[in-house]
């Protein structure tokens, strides 16, 4: 069934509050790690100039390499590449001046993100939209320290960004409808689909995805079935493209543990992390990125 698109269609390329609904010419990304590099790559391919800010020059150079590698993979698949000078990197948020959108993608730590967002806001133009790629932290909690919470929202990209079609647009209590509409249009302009979700712990995807993942880990602990058979039950029985344990390996066991702890604080024991998850994380078995999680991974 196709639902009618009830969003108001802007008849000019500028939204009601002076926010362009076409893709901003300049986009900033704070934190050029796994997600930030993927986000930068997506906006570069869509034609924006992208500036990535990292914590120091060495990390900035590493971020540039990550984005370049992602662009090379796209070229190998036949995509036209943007000019090399459309990507810039640095270590000072002042470089975000002139950007219409800045996406924060530093590690999932509330204090770190509040500090990062405050520094972004101090550096950018008053009209810029600022977004966080947080997987689990409340948008309203992050907005509380900002001077312009009406121009702040969550843009929750998925991992790996180039292969993921979805972005959750997470609306805070103060986010204006114009900002939500512009952000939704920008997501579509980079070739992805947006779902709009009210700020609630775990949004839509993490809450459901982690619930399934934690139950799968408990089933493994209880010896109900092997990891392979638990995953196969979902892949073949429910047509999930990837089972919950393999998905946990790909996301990172440490990332999932952090989200589970956040959801346990919000919803109680039903999101309590299983002992097996804590044990594997404590042993450094974080999934694909360390070569071992619920499965063995070769490089
Ligand atoms: N990995 C996933 O599957 C996934 C999926 C969706 C959302 N997220 C979210 O995306 C965010 C980033 O996750 P990631 O997996 O890319 O982490 P990551 O560790 O790969 O990257 C984080 C980057 O931020 C940089 N950084 C740290 N402090 C900084 C600072 N003060 N200023 C600038 N840069 C700084 C680090 O050097 C690093 O390159 C987190 O909020 C995470 O929850 C992750």
From TrEMBL:
Its EC number is 1.1.1.157. Belongs to the 3-hydroxyacyl-CoA dehydrogenase family. Pathway: Lipid metabolism; butanoate metabolism. The record marks 156 as: Important for catalytic activity. This is 3-hydroxybutyryl-CoA dehydrogenase. Residues 202-297 form the 3-hydroxyacyl-CoA dehydrogenase C-terminal domain. It is an enzyme of class 1 (oxidoreductase). GO terms for biological process: fatty acid metabolic process. It comes from the Bacteria. SUPFAM superfamilies: 6-phosphogluconate dehydrogenase C-terminal domain-like, NAD(P)-binding Rossmann-fold domains. Residues 27-199 form the 3-hydroxyacyl-CoA dehydrogenase NAD binding domain. Pfam families: 3HCDH, 3HCDH_N. One of its GO terms (molecular function) is 3-hydroxybutyryl-CoA dehydrogenase activity. InterPro entries: 3-OHacyl-CoA_DH, 3-OHacyl-CoA_DH_NAD-bd, 3HC_DH_C, 6-PGluconate_DH-like_C_sf, 6PGD_dom2, NAD(P)-bd_dom_sf. Keywords: Oxidoreductase.
């Amino acid at each position: 069934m196709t639902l009618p698109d009830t969003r108001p269609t802007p008849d000019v390329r500028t939204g009601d509050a002076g926010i362009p609904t076409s893709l901003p010419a300049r986009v900033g990304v704070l934190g050029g790690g796994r997600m930030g590099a993927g986000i930068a790559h997506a906006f570069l391919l869509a034609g924006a100039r992208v500036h990535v800010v990292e914590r120091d020059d060495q990390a900035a150079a590493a971020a540039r390499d990550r984005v370049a590698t992602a662009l090379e993979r796209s070229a190998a698949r036949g995509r036209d590449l943007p000019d090399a000078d459309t990507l810039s990197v640095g270590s000072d948020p002042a470089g975000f001046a002139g950007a219409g959108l800045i996406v924060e993608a530093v590690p999932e730590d509330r204090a770190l993100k509040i500090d990062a967002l405050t520094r972004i806001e101090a550096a950018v133009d008053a009209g810029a939209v600022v977004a966080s790629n947080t997987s689990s932290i409340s948008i309203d909690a992050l907005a509380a320290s900002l001077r312009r919470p009406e121009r702040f929202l969550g843009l929750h990209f998925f991992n790996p960004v180039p292969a993921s079609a979805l972005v959750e647009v997470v609306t805070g209590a103060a986010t204006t409808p114009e900002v939500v509409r512009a952000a939704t249009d920008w997501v579509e302009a980079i070739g992805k689909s947006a779902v709009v979700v009210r700020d609630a712990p775990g949004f839509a995807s993490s809450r459901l995805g982690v619930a399934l993942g934690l139950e799968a880990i408990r089933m493994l602990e209880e010896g109900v079935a092997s990891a392979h058979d638990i995953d196969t039950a979902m892949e073949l029985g429910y047509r999930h493209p990837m089972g919950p344990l393999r998905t946990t390996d790909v996301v990172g066991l440490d990332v999932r543990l952090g989200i589970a702890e956040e959801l346990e604080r919000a919803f109680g024991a039903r999101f309590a992390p299983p002992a097996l998850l804590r044990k594997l994380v404590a042993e450094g078995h974080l999934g694909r990125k360390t070569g071992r999680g619920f499965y063995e991974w070769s490089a």
